[in-house]
Write a structure and sequence with these properties.
Layout (H helix, E strand, L loop, with lengths): L11 H13 L3 H24 L4 H13 L1 H7 L5 H20 L7 H14 L6 H13 L6 H25 L13 H5 L14 H24 L14 H21 L2 H15 L13 H22 L7 H33 L8 H14 L5 E4 L2 H11 L8 E4 L6 H10 L4 E4 L4 H12 L4 E6 L7 E5 L3
Parallel strand pairs: 1-2, 1-3
Antiparallel strand pairs: 3-5, 4-5
Helix pairs in contact: 2-3, 2-5, 3-13, 3-14, 5-6, 5-7, 7-8, 7-12, 10-11, 11-13, 13-14, 15-16, 17-18
Length: 476
């Protein structure tokens, strides 16, 4: 919920977690097992997809490089939908290939499985709609003339399912107020100039070109970080372009183009549509959007470096007879380099997670204290607004699992206009606000507290961390 509205995110991942929460409660170990199992499954299916195009040595190198890459390790410590989506999307690609190449009938079992996996991917992350575009383009472009009529039927089936799902998703979205950034439909968000601003204007062609250019630079820097094993933040508005990021992006792009020309497959179509989606997308959220294509990034990088090795072999006549051995040795050497580059960051991540697990939030002791205070001093129908309403609600349920609280927790509006943020709180009939010293609270909530001091009363302050405060909202 965001400001009292059910937002647009699909239900697939929450349903996966519900299968754990229902019998076992909020068991974060089991949730992490789900995420890690998704990562392992994704890497294995990526291995199979790449092995079918090259050889098992190249696929093993890509698999090891992906497994050790920092973004994959990082996502394994989070309980987010990226890795389950990655697993489902790779599984879908595998069955799309089977449906298009080995199935002679448009209504075969492999077709039902492929469509089912695509739908599961869409209901996990909406970017799964790119799988429909991938499948349609792949069936049309890679058509086998003797089976062209059957392929046309397959395209029509996929297109009908795509249109049905898209219409259902679009029609199921209620009409949100224009001020809600989190409530914007994906269609409105991608065509808005600044989706985070209230009443955002429709984007123009020049603005779209600037967005594409900015996104290209941003993801170029992120790809370099992935390859070099750096856990280094890239500024969303001012990404720093270096010689290494230019060279790495060039190598990946040339490897991609080489694959398109020499042995085009469903992977190339999916990579194209997936990258196109995020090149146009307004939000920039680090490497998490790149996680579902990291194996393919390494695949294209390895493909480029493999061609360099072949050129060296042909330039030195004595090496020609040992071509396969040199190529395999080169792949293992590159894999070893990628493992060493990522080793330090992954060890640091493991140590950080041991002493301060992600699922505890920013300051778990503060939240626990505040929730205990709410239980002791407020009625059961209290409405609370905070930076992280999900964590507040979680603590209510964790600290008293047998007593289901009637208290409602919401987030505040991410709007640069204090009057509108306060208005949104009033519309929710907010009773209390939790203020923290940094993050979104500093950007959007603190200006409200400073501009309207007569509307807020500091009612409880944490004994140690004095900047964590509960405010009572006073009626106008």
């Amino acid at each position: 919920m965001y400001l009292g509205y059910t937002i647009k995110y699909p239900p697939g991942f929450p349903l996966m977690l519900a299968l754990i929460i229902k019998p076992f409660g909020y068991n974060f170990i089991l949730m992490r097992i789900l995420i890690i199992a998704s990562a392992i499954g994704s890497i294995w299916i990526a291995y199979l997809l790449i092995r079918d195009r090259t050889n098992r040595w190249m696929a093993a190198g890509v698999m090891c490089s992906t497994a050790i890459s920092f973004p994959i390790a990082y996502e394994c410590t989070r309980i987010l939908s990226e890795l389950p989506y990655t697993f489902l999307s790779f599984f879908a690609l595998r069955w799309v290939e089977h449906y298009s190449q080995k199935s002679s009938s448009w209504h075969s079992k492999s077709g039902y499985v492929a469509v089912g996996l695509i739908l599961a991917s869409c209901f996990t992350r909406t970017v799964g709609l790119t799988l429909f575009a991938t499948t349609i383009a792949y069936l049309i472009a890679e058509v086998n003339l003797p089976r062209s009529q059957e392929n046309l039927k397959k395209v029509l089936v996929i297109a009908i399912v795509l249109i049905t799902v898209s219409l259902q998703h679009h029609l199921s979205q209620p009409e949100y107020p224009s001020k809600l950034r989190q409530g914007l439909s994906y269609e409105r968000e991608i065509f808005s100039l600044k989706p985070g601003a209230p009443n955002a204007l429709r984007i123009g062609w020049q603005d779209l070109a600037e967005r594409v250019n900015g996104n290209a630079k941003y993801y170029q820097a992120l790809i370099a970080n992935i390859v070099l094993g750096k856990n280094k933040r890239v500024h969303p508005e001012k990404p720093r372009i270096t010689a290494s990021s230019v060279l790495i992006t060039f190598a990946v792009l040339v490897g991609y183009l080489f694959s398109v020309i020499r042995h085009r497959s469903v992977i190339e179509y999916y990579t194209f549509f997936y990258v196109l989606t995020y090149i146009l997308w307004p939000a920039r959220q680090g490497t998490r959007f790149l996680v579902p294509i990291i194996p393919f990034l390494f695949y294209y990088l390895f493909g480029f470096l493999k061609q360099i090795i072949r050129l060296l072999i042909f330039s030195v006549r004595q090496w020609t007879n040992r071509r396969q051995f040199i190529e395999i040795t080169g792949i293992f050497a590159l894999t070893g380099i990628f493992i060493l580059l990522n080793f330090h960051e992954n060890i640091q991540l493991i140590q950080d997670e041991r002493y301060r697990p992600y699922y505890r939030g920013g300051r778990p002791d503060v939240l626990a204290d505040f929730v205990q205070w709410f239980r002791a001093n407020t009625p059961d129908d209290t409405v609370i607004v905070s930076t992280n309403p999900a964590s507040v609600q979680l603590f209510f349920e964790k600290l008293a699992p047998k007593h289901r609280t009637g208290r409602k927790t919401f987030g505040f509006a991410w709007i640069d206009h204090p009057a509108e943020v306060l208005q949104a709180m009033d519309e929710l009939s907010t009773d209390y606000v939790i203020s923290v010293p940094s993050g979104k609270a500093a950007t959007y909530l603190h200006p409200v507290l400073h501009k309207y001091p007569d509307r807020f009363e500091a009612i409880h302050r944490h004994k140690i961390y004095k900047k964590y405060v509960i405010y009572r909202v006073l009626k106008p």
